[in-house]
Design brief:
- 2 copies of one chain form a homodimer.
- With 113 residues, the first copy, chain A, is an alpha+beta fold.
- Helices cover 59% and strands 12% of the residues of chain A.
- Chain A is built from 5 helices and 3 strands.
- The first copy, chain A, has a 3-stranded antiparallel sheet with strand order 1-3-2.
- In chain A, α1 (8-15) packs antiparallel against α4.
- Chain A is elongated, with a radius of gyration of 20 Å.
- In chain A, 28% of the residues are buried.
- The interface between A and B is large, with 36 and 36 residues.
- The structure holds a DNA duplex (30 and 30 nucleotides).
DNA sequence: GGGTCGCGCAACTTTTGGGTTGCATATTTC
DNA sequence: GAAATATGCAACCCAAAAGTTGCGCGACCC
């Protein structure tokens, strides 16, 4: 079966490449696509695309399914969701920090514990 | 001034490294931190950290400010926000696609135009 | 069955990235 | 002003990533 989302790092790294992000874009339309299909628009070799897909699959961003002679790839929204959650966590921490700072400035040094 | 968020690709790539993601984590507490401060926990050289910070800055994830002899780095929530928005866009496209598929299955082929 | 289509594997080349070391320089501190 | 701090810059090293080519093989179409 497809690997569950691993580290957020791997997922971010997976999207941190123009080719792979483009692939994710194509897959975001929902329809499972074959390697040949995914290679079409690009100016890369099928092999290059294959390698990128492997990276996306390993990081849990996409899933692979075999259908006859073709390998169909599909987006895994769970991975996307996890990344979003991670970023939201960072945002939240930041907002909390700002809120504490604001309180500190307005109320004058509150008890620190 | 600090560069505005560039491509989402650059931002994702910036977070796609354990060291840099850790740096972002440290900076998410809100307090601006110097390079020496950011290097403390790590087992890397200050130079290595400096390079990573440069990547984070170039991609717009963090901002740099000079204070005397030290360089203070700070998170740029706008960049984080942009990444979230990007991921949400992908999620939305996916959900829409699924909804269309569901409608198709339940209602039987609706007019396609 | 023969031709074509879609892939996988392996070997190899070329960039890019992560890290280090060494040295120079501006700021602080005493 | 001397010592200590906090950085910046440049040259280098090594490993990993991106991409290509060549070849073999199962799946499909007529």
């Amino acid at each position: 079966m497809s690997p569950q989302p691993l580290s957020p790092v791997a997922a971010f790294a997976a999207l941190g490449d123009p080719t792979r992000l483009a692939l994710v874009g194509k897959l975001s339309v929902g329809t499972p696509l074959s390697i040949a299909r995914l290679t079409d628009g690009s100016d890369l070799t099928r092999q290059a695309v294959t390698k990128h897909l492997r990276v996306l699959e390993t990081s849990g961003v996409v899933g692979k399914r075999q259908s006859g002679r073709e390998s169909l790839y599909q987006l895994r929204p769970a991975a996307i969701h996890d990344m979003r959650a991670y970023l939201e966590d960072i945002s939240r921490q930041w907002d909390d920090a700002l809120a504490r700072l604001k309180a500190f400035v307005e109320d004058g040094a509150p008890a620190s514990d």
